[in-house]
Structure formats: structure tokens, C-alpha cells
């Protein structure tokens, strides 16, 4: 493992300045992903700037509704926060469906959003991977790709983003607060992660050294009427094979508004805009939910081993929405 | 059956070392404080087949703290012909991807790891073949199968009887590679002093490690000492010496300092052995009532080009059920892969998955209840050897399990029970495992203060073996157990076989009981002298003189699953096992072994699978986040029961062994339950949701 220096900055400005000055430095949150990748030789920072001591560890209600979550709030604390549980239960559900108690105790909000793909080839320096080493090829494209993308992939990379939290946040129109040398700014979470395109090595729209300081969730009147369904290969402690985050607002039987996002299907948490569009303003039925899913999944291009994800996501969409609509559970 | 036990045997007792383990004071192989210690890091080959043409260690040696790099060009020489999987760093040949081809030694673990990354190795590669297939050109018939069974057997005329049978079943089952993942990886601390070698090794048997190291390094065995006081699991993969102990000993000799070397989780996927993938064709010919007349089990598995390992997959079928006309065969394919090795119930585990699944298919085909079908096909003498059984309580296990599981109320129709989105089903399978004993030596020593020390080189790999032996010793000495101390896990102790084959307690216990009995006898006439009194007993003659009987433990598994009709996810509501395993020495640790085995079978049925990438020739899901092993949440209720079984023809401990029987048949019971729930028969494990999803009955 490469020898590295370790630093705990006094404030956000110092943290940002440090990374700005050091091209091979990295922020350290709970370390549950970064440190593993350092041991494997996949990431090799020479300086770790530990941000967990920064005063970014609170969850606050915003004046006009909505929530602000500090970047270093631990996943366990976020999931257990009474405000989150009451007003944004989608976050608690997504978080508690992920990882293990021990990992959630360490993992931070920002670290969770920026965790790297679990593509097995990415994690093995003995295998070809464009994300890890641009230009070496994508071993997964014609290799073991059951767990990988069906949407938005490119020939250069077919990886998925593994976070459950990000799927819930992207459904809730979350906004990411970022500090970089130019100052503070905001990015809609849906624009934070990229599709791989020609540059799978670039996972987010953040430049080197940009520090996530928090995540804001705008008020959403029907945020409590939500569900997170996660399918995985064993009952606990496994990444999603596919997941759906949904919130539904019905007026009589008509869909007044809806939020829908998919996990484990693409290089980024996948906001299902097309499906939402197909639902809004229409009388809700299970058939409509299926049509909406089909509208979103029309663009799906399954890989040799993951064709099942298309019906899986479709079924999950129908189940999530019919459950929220109070229709008789199947 | 028998009167309740008196004394220590038969009583619940937590493991003697349990407190040390949970408080972190029990030491494992690389945790002993050692002065001047260095760290070794094994370097895996990045080629699948070929030769090393050049090794460049300049960058490695430039890393601060790196002391040396060992490879075939400079490592101390080993004696050839001992064990080809251990003939490491001697030749430039690469037999499989991940084979250890160098070791970096450094002052710190991190420096060793960084140094390992920087070793530059060039290979002359050759085309490789790593995928098992039934038509592989290298398919061959091994001379024997593990651990010495005949390769093929035949009784009667299978072909004619099968052709004439009213009901014929001909199915093929496939299992993937399974990887042993003990919590403690294979790990060693080695040091040389004055020509003597001391190692702390994570092994299931320090006596064989001692013998092998002595041979490899050309040393008298008494100059090698191997300590394995606590071992964090093995499941068979530590049943023979493995690479780390040899690499550490080589490295320690080279740098003339103690070396610690532990494998990473990723490095466990291959070099330490794994359960071979299997392709198993099972044919059953029966009458309309399900009575089997003809049975044939043809098993294909893989081995490496380093050394042959022939999994005895079809052996289970030789003795399990009746049927006059029978045949079993084993074929191997030699591939550019690591050598497969033992994994909990090698042979019986994959073999029972196939046979017990086929029996379920036969039950469905005949319209006979699958419990009843097994009862109808019970054997009265061992169909393979013709010998009588020392005891055979398969039917009793099936009946008791059926009673506890309320099996009588079961509707046999597949895919017919639905609760909301869940499809519900139940399944059954039988189980058996040989009850063997091997020779061992033990000493029992009395001290003048009224205490005793019993010594035997047993290994406790976390099973509770130490505690069981202590209980047996106390009763054989007829003293309260708190006056007895037990010492295991050190090659300086009297020699004993490995913890394997479910014969540890039978074999070690035999020697312990005899030593204690003799000591007790001696103490009838004499008081304990000031210097104490020790007796030593070997059971070699007694074990050899055993009556020729078929000795087996039996069991029956009952499982309820539910399958999500929308997603294909399988969840296990309940597993129930009933076992006939002779006497149970310690119910606490016995239950752990049995439910541990059952869970491992569930894991095999639903989760575990080494995913091979043919282009690279290795398994790509080589960590515990991607190679899924069942956890507690994967079974909501798990119960293990045992019948009171007194078998006078076993061994003085009167035990049959409990380490492996729990996994035998367990995967089949899960698979059978999935079929009952869904009507879908998945014949290649694991039963993943994507194999079910598009085949489930519509809601
Ligand atoms: C076995 C296992 C199972 C798991 N299962 C799941 C699962 O089912 N679902 C799921 O969602 N997750 C799962 N995880 C992943 C886990 O959620 C992540 O590892 C964790 O959330 C990462 O958070 P962290 O704070 O530890 O990040 P770190 O490892 O500290 O950092 C991750 C990345 O974020 C960067 N970073 C950290 N903080 C900031 C910041 N403030 N600003 C900018 N960059 C920053 C780091 O530089 C690094 O690149 C699992 C992990 C493991 C090991
Ligand atoms: S899918 Fe992406 S991460 Fe995986 S091997 Fe291909 S390039 Fe690398």
C-alpha cells in the first residue's frame, strides 16, 4: 500500500485549499470505501484529508420545509434522525436497506454519494478497466456483467453506481452543496453523477478538490408517502440487484404527482423522468404503472447476463406504485 | 433409549476458550508477539499458463522497509515430490492465475504490500483452458477418488434394469466452484533458530504440517514445531499444509528473521483449494410406487495440472438407498486452474445435492410423498459393500422430522400455495456421512494435587473439539471436569490426525479415553508420586482391529421457503434437521456444528458461486461483498435435533461425528422446497432470482 500523509483540517477553507494544492490528495469520510480501494491499489492518494472533524455533522430543518443534511452525518445517524424518519422516511428506508450496521456507523453522507462502483473488474488491478486505467478496455463488457448496467452505458464502461441513499435522494430532487476554490455552489444531485460516455474515469461533475459540504432536500408535500424496494441476492448485507424509490401523490384516483428513481441499473442513480411523465395526470391503475415502467425501460439495452433486470425493475415499479396507491397488494 | 448421562459428557458447556476469543486474548497464527518480526506478502501470478521469463525486483527493493524478494531464481531449495502444490518458488512454470510466484519481505505489512505491487514479472504465456465441460478433450478416469475410494462401481445390470423400469428419470445437475472462507485466512508466523523451525500456523492439523515441512526442508521432524492453538475455521481448506506456511518458512530462512504471512481474502479464492464444480448425471429407474430398481450416478469434476484431486461426488449414491442394479462413475478434467481440495463434506455434499434432488423428482413423477419414497428405499445392508450397518436410523430421522415439521398436512402439488406475493413450498432431503475413526496417541498425566492434564495433538478449529475432549477425559477419569486440563494444537503433543472427515472427536476421543482409563487403572493401586504419573496410549492396533461394518451418521432435512413472485427472491422461513449421530458429547457445540452445516447448505443452494472469467481463468467475485455467503437473516428459524442413538460398534466415545452431516442434503432440501413453491426445477446451483424470474407462475 502506498505510504500516505494524513491531515485533519480545521475548517472547510483549509480542506479545500489542501486538495487544491495537492493533485493526489483525497478527502476521507468514514473510509469504508476509500480505504478498501487503497488496500487493493485501486486508489493511491498520497494525502488523506479527513473531513469527519469538520462541523458538517448535523441534520437541520429548513425554514420553508425541507431538510439540510451535513456531509459528514453518519449513515446510521441519518437513518435514525426523528425528522428524517417522520418527513423523509424514504432516506431511512434506503439507508437501512444498505450495507451493515457497522458500515453505516462509519459511512458519511458525502462518502456514500461518492462511493465507487462495485464492478469486480474495477476492484482488481489485474484486470482491464477503463474506469481505473483509461484506455485499457472494459473487461466487464464481455465478462461477468450480471450486476451491471442496462441503461445509459457506453462501450467503454457498463458499471453501475451502488448507492441506495443516492437513489432515494435523486427521487427527492436533492441538491448537493459544494465548496471548491472558487467558493460555494450547488448542483442538483441528478447532475452530480455522469453516464460513462467516452470518459468512464470521470464519475461525477465535480472537479478535483471539490468538497461536498451538505445535501439539501426541497420541501415535497407527499414525501412521506413513499417506498424503497430493493432486490438483492441475500436477505441482508448485499448491494442492490435492482431498486426502486417512489413517492406518490394521488388526488382521488388520479396521479397528481410522482417521484420515481431506479438503482443498480446505470452509472448513476436513475431518475425515471419518462415514467413519471407517463403517470402524471392519469387515473392510476396497475396497468398504467406497468406502461410507465415500460416507457422508461424502452431505452434499456441489457448486457448478456442482465436481461432479467428489465422485467425486475418493471415488476418493482408496479409493486411500489400500486402499494402506494393503496391498491390491493398483489 | 439410554439413561441420562452422568458426569460431563452430554452436558451443555460453552467452549473453554470462548471467553478468550470474545475478549480478543486468544491468539491466532499471526498474532503472537515476536521480536524482530518481518512481514511477508505473497505475489500472485498474473498469467494463467506459461513461464516466467523475467523478474525485475528493483522497484520493490527501493521501497523503504523492503528487505528481500524471493522467487524461483533465488529462494531456498525444497525437496521435490513431497506435495506439488507446495513446491513453491522453485520453478518458473505458472500453472494457474493467482499461483504464488514471489514473496516480498518487509519491515511493515504496508511496505510488503506496496513492494508486492511493484514486482515486475514477464511471462511467456500459452493458451489456457479453465472451464469444466462434459466433452472436454482432457476428460479422463482417475485411478481412485478422494480419499481412496474406487473410481467406478457396478452391481447388477444397470442398463437393462433402467430400460425395463416403469418410471425412468434422467437428469443432470450442476454445481459451481465453492470457496472456503474461514474468518481467519490461511496464515503463518515462521522463525528459524539454530537450524530448528518454529511455526504458528492456521491449520486443521499441525502433525501433518510438521511432517511436510520436515520433508520439504530436509529436516528431522523433531526439529520442526508447529503450533495451532486457536484456528479461525477451515472447513477442510486447512486440512493439509497450504502455501502460506511454506512461503513463510522460505522467507524466514532467506531473511534470517521471523516472518508473518497471511493471505488476503482475495487470495483465498483459488490457491488454498475450493470445491470443484461438478456436472452430475443421475438416472433412476423405479416401479410405479417409487421403489428404485436401478440407480446410476455419473460425476464429472475438475482437477489441476499441478496435482490430482478427485472429488468423490458419486460415492454418496453407493450406500444411501436400496436398488439392486447400480453404477457410479467419476471422471476428471485437467484444467489450468488451482487444485480443488476439501470443503466441508467433499463428495457427499455435492453428490447428495444431486441424488436427493433426483429422489424428489422421482417422488413427483410417481406421485409418492418424498418422505415415504425415501422410507420405501431404505437399505437393510450397505448396498455397496454388502456389510451390515453398525446402526442406521435414516427412517427414524425422516419420521421424527416429518412429525416436528407437520409434514403430514403437506399438499404435494407444486406451485399451489400463495400468500400475498409469496409462493410457499416445503422440501425434504436425506443425509448421511461416514462415521470413521483413525489412530491417535494421547497422554494422561496425574499430579499429586489431584489435578490431571490430558494431551493430544487435536486441533480445535472453532468447533468446540477441545471442550468435547475435556468432557470425555473427565468422565473417563471419573473426576469432576474442573480438575482436568486439556492441551491440544501443538506438534510437540502426542501425534493425532487432522480435524477433518468428521472423525476428530471419534479418533482423538478414543485415545484420550484409553489414556485416561489406563491412568485411572494405575491409580487404583498407587498414589500419585511426587513427580506425577503419565501414561501414553496409541490406538493404532485397536482402530485397525475394528469390525468391518458400514458405519454412517444419518439425517433428514426439512425446509420451508417462500419465493417472491415479482422478483424471484427466495427466502428461507425454516430449516429443520434431525440427525442420528451416535452420542452427543456437548449439545451446545453440537448444535452449532449442525446448524452451521445446514446454513452452509442453504448458502450453496441460494448464494455461493465462484464466477469464472474464462479469458483470465480466475474467479472474479473474490471477496465477501461479491461472493455471497448466507448470513443470519437468510434463515428465519433454524432447528437441529438429534435422536438418542446408542451404537455399540463405533468407538469408545460412541460418537459418529457431526462436523459435516449438517451440510449433506441441505442444499437439496432447499432446492426441493423451491420446486414445491414454484413448480420450477433449477438444476444448476445457485438458485438465483434471475433463473426463476421469467418462469414463475402468473399471479
Ligand atoms: C461490504 C459492503 C457492503 C455495502 N453495501 C452497501 C449497500 O448495500 N448499499 C449502499 O448504498 N452502500 C453499501 N456499501 C457502501 C457504503 O455505503 C459506502 O462504503 C459508504 O457509504 C461510503 O462512505 P464513507 O464515508 O465511508 O466514504 P469514504 O470511503 O470515506 O469515501 C468515499 C469517497 O468519497 C470521497 N469523499 C468523502 N467525503 C467527501 C466529501 N465531503 N466531499 C467530497 N468527497 C468526499 C472520498 O474521497 C472517496 O472518494 C457497502 C460497503 C461495503 C464495504
Ligand atoms: S464496467 Fe466500467 S468499471 Fe467495470 S471494467 Fe468496465 S470500465 Fe471498468
Describe this structure as you would to a colleague.
The complex is a heterodimer of chains A (330) and B (699). Chain A has a domain at 226-326: CO dehydrogenase flavoprotein, C-terminal domain (Enolase-like, domain 1), CATH 3.30.390. Chain A is α+β, with helices and mostly antiparallel strands and 330 residues long. Chain A is globular. Chain A has helices at 12-21, 34-39, 75-80, 82-87, 89-96, 101-106, 109-113, 165-171, 273-279, 286-297, 309-324; strands at 5-7, 25-28, 47-50, 59-61, 67-70, 175-180, 183-188, 211-217, 226-231, 242-251, 254-263, 270-271. In chain A, the strands form 3 sheets. Chain A has a 5-stranded antiparallel sheet. With 699 residues, chain B is α+β, with helices and mostly antiparallel strands. Chain B has 3 domains: 38-47 and 49-127 and 182-264, Aldehyde Oxidoreductase, domain 4 (2-Layer Sandwich), CATH 3.30.365.10; 144-177 and 274-435 and 548-695, 2-Layer Sandwich (Aldehyde Oxidoreductase, domain 4), CATH 3.30.365; 438-544, Aldehyde Oxidoreductase, domain 4, CATH 3.30.365.10. Chain B contains 16 helices and 28 strands. In chain B, helix 11 runs parallel beside helix 12 and helix 14 (587-606) crosses helix 15. Chain B starts with 17 loop residues before the first helix and ends in a 7-residue tail after the last helix. The site of iron/sulfur cluster has 15 residues of chain A, from loops.
Amino acid at each position: 500500500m502506498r505510504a500516505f500523509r494524513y491531515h485533519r483540517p480545521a475548517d472547510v477553507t483549509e480542506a479545500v485549499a489542501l486538495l487544491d494544492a495537492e493533485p493526489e490528495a483525497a478527502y476521507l469520510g468514514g473510509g469504508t470505501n476509500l480505504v478498501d480501494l487503497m488496500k487493493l491499489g485501486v486508489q493511491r492518494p498520497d494525502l488523506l484529508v479527513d473531513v469527519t472533524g469538520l462541523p458538517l455533522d448535523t441534520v437541520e430543518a429548513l425554514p420553508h420545509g425541507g431538510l439540510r443534511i451535513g456531509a459528514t452525518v453518519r449513515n446510521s445517524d441519518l437513518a435514525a434522525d426523528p425528522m428524517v424518519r417522520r418527513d423523509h422516511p424514504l432516506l431511512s428506508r434506503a439507508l437501512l436497506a444498505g450495507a451493515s450496521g457497522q458500515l453505516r456507523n462509519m459511512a458519511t453522507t458525502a462518502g456514500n454519494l461518492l462511493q465507487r462502483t462495485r464492478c469486480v473488474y474495477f476492484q482488481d488491478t489485474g484486470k482491464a478497466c477503463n474506469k481505473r486505467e483509461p484506455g485499457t478496455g472494459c473487461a466487464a463488457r464481455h465478462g461477468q456483467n450480471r450486476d451491471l448496467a442496462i441503461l445509459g452505458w457506453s462501450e467503454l464502461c457498463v458499471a453501475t453506481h451502488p448507492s441506495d441513499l443516492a437513489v432515494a435522494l435523486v427521487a427527492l430532487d436533492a441538491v448537493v452543496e459544494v465548496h471548491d476554490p472558487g467558493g460555494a455552489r450547488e448542483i442538483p444531485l441528478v447532475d452530480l453523477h455522469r453516464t460513462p460516455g467516452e470518459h468512464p474515469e470521470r464519475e461525477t461533475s465535480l472537479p478535483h478538490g471539490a468538497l461536498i459540504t451538505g445535501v439539501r432536500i426541497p420541501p415535497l408535500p407527499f414525501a412521506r408517502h413513499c417506498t424503497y424496494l430493493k432486490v438483492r441476492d441475500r436477505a441482508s448485507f448485499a448491494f442492490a440487484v435492482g431498486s426502486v424509490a417512489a413517492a406518490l401523490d394521488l388526488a382521488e384516483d388520479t396521479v397528481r404527482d410522482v417521484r420515481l428513481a431506479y438503482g443498480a441499473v446505470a452509472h448513476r442513480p436513475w431518475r425515471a423522468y419518462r415514467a413519471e411523465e407517463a403517470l402524471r395526470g392519469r387515473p392510476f391503475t396497475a396497468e398504467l404503472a406497468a406502461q410507465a415502467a415500460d416507457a422508461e425501460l424502452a431505452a434499456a439495452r441489457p448486457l448478456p447476463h442482465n436481461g432479467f433486470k428489465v422485467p425486475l425493475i418493471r415488476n418493482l415499479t408496479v409493486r411500489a406504485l400500486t402499494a402506494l396507491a393503496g391498491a390491493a397488494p398483489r | 433409549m439410554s439413561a441420562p448421562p452422568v458426569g460431563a459428557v452430554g452436558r451443555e458447556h460453552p467452549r473453554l476458550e470462548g471467553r478468550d476469543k470474545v475478549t480478543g486474548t486468544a491468539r491466532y497464527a499471526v498474532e503472537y508477539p515476536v521480536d524482530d518480526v518481518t512481514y511477508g506478502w505473497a505475489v500472485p501470478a498474473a498469467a494463467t499458463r506459461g513461464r516466467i521469463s523475467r523478474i525485475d525486483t528493483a522497484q520493490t527493493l527501493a521501497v523503504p522497509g523492503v528487505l528481500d524478494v524471493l522467487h524461483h531464481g533465488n529462494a531456498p531449495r525444497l525437496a521435490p515430490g513431497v506435495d506439488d502444490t507446495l513446491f513453491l518458488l522453485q520453478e518458473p512454470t505458472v500453472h494457474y492465475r493467482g499461483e504464488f510466484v514471489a514473496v516480498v519481505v518487509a519491515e511493515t505489512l504496508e511496505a510488503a504490500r506496496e513492494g508486492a505491487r511493484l514486482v515486475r514479472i514477464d511471462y511467456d504465456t500459452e493458451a489456457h483452458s479453465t472451464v469444466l465441460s462434459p466433452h472436454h478433450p482432457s476428460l479422463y478416469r482417475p485411478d481412485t477418488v478422494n480419499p481412496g475410494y474406487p473410481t467406478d462401481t457396478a452391481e447388477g445390470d444397470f442398463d437393462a434394469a433402467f430400460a425395463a423400469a416403469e418410471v425412468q428419470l434422467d437428469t443432470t445437475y450442476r454445481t459451481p466452484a465453492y470457496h472456503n472462507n474461514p474468518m481467519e485466512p490461511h496464515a503463518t508466523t515462521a522463525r528459524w533458530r539454530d537450524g530448528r523451525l518454529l511455526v504458528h500456523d492456521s491449520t486443521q492439523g499441525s502433525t501433518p504440517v510438521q511432517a511436510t515441512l520436515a520433508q520439504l526442508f530436509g529436516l528431522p521432524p523433531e526439529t520442526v514445531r508447529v503450533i495451532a492453538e486457536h484456528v479461525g475455521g477451515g472447513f477442510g481448506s486447512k486440512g493439509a499444509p497450504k502455501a502460506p506456511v511454506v512461503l513463510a518458512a522460505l522467507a524466514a530462512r532467506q531473511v534470517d528473521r521471523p516472518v508473518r504471512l497471511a493471505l488476503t481474502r482475495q487470495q483465498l479464492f483459488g490457491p488454498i483449494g475450493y470445491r470443484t464444480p461438478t456436472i452430475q448425471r443421475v438416472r433412476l429407474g423405479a416401479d410405479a410406487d417409487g421403489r428404485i430398481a436401478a440407480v446410476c450416478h455419473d460425476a464429472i469434476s475438475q482437477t489441476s495440472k499441478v496435482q490430482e484431486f478427485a472429488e468423490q461426488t458419486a460415492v454418496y449414491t453407493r450406500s444411501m438407498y436400496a436398488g439392486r442394479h447400480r453404477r457410479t462413475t467419476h471422471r476428471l478434467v485437467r484444467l489450468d486452474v488451482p487444485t480443488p481440495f476439501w470443503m466441508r463434506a467433499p463428495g457427499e455434499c455435492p453428490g447428495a445435492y444431486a441424488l436427493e434432488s433426483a429422489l424428489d423428482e422421482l417422488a413427483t413423477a410417481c406421485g409418492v410423498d418424498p418422505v415415504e419414497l425415501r422410507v420405501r428405499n431404505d437399505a437393510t445392508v450397505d448396498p455397496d459393500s454388502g456389510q451390515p450397518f453398525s446402526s442406521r436410523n435414516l427412517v427414524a430421522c425422516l419420521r421424527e422430522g416429518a412429525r416436528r415439521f407437520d409434514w403430514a398436512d403437506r399438499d404435494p402439488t407444486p406451485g399451489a400455495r400463495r400468500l400475498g406475493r409469496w409462493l410457499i413450498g416445503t422440501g425434504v432431503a436425506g443425509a448421511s456421512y461416514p462415521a470413521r475413526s483413525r489412530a491417535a496417541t494421547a497422554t494422561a498425566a496425574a499430579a499429586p494435587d489431584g489435578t490431571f492434564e490430558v494431551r493430544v495433538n487435536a486441533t480445535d478449529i472453532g468447533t468446540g473439539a477441545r471442550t468435547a475432549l475435556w468432557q470425555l477425559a473427565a468422565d473417563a477419569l471419573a473426576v469432576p471436569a474442573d480438575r482436568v486440563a486439556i492441551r491440544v494444537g501443538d506438534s510437540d503433543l502426542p501425534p493425532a490426525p487432522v480435524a477433518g472427515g468428521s472423525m476428530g472427536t471419534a479418533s482423538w476421543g478414543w485415545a484420550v479415553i484409553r489414556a485416561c482409563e489406563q491412568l485411572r487403572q494405575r491409580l487404583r493401586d498407587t498414589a500419585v508420586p511426587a513427580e506425577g504419573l503419565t501414561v501414553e496410549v496409541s490406538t493404532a492396533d485397536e482402530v485397525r482391529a475394528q469390525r468391518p461394518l458400514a458405519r454412517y451418521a444419518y439425517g433428514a432435512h426439512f425446509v420451508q421457503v417462500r419465493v417472491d413472485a415479482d422478483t424471484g427472491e427466495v427466502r428461507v422461513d425454516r430449516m429443520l434437521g434431525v440427525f442420528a449421530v451416535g452420542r452427543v458429547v456437548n449439545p451446545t457445540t453440537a448444535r452449532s456444528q449442525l446448524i452451521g452445516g445446514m446454513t452452509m447448505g442453504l448458502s450453496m443452494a441460494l448464494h455461493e458461486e465462484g464466477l469464472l472469467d474464462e479469458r483470465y481463468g480466475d474467479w472474479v467475485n473474490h471477496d465477501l461483498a461479491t461472493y455471497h455467503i448466507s448470513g443470519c437473516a437468510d434463515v428465519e428459524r433454524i432447528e437441529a435435533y438429534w435422536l438418542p442413538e446408542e451404537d455399540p460398534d463405533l468407538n469408545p466415545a460412541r460418537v459418529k461425528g457431526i462436523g459435516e452431516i449438517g451440510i449433506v442434503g441441505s442444499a437439496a432440501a432447499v432446492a426441493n422446497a423451491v420446486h414445491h413453491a414454484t413448480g420450477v426445477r433449477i438444476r444448476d446451483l445457485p438458485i438465483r432470482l434471475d433463473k426463476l424470474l421469467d418462469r414463475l407462475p402468473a399471479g
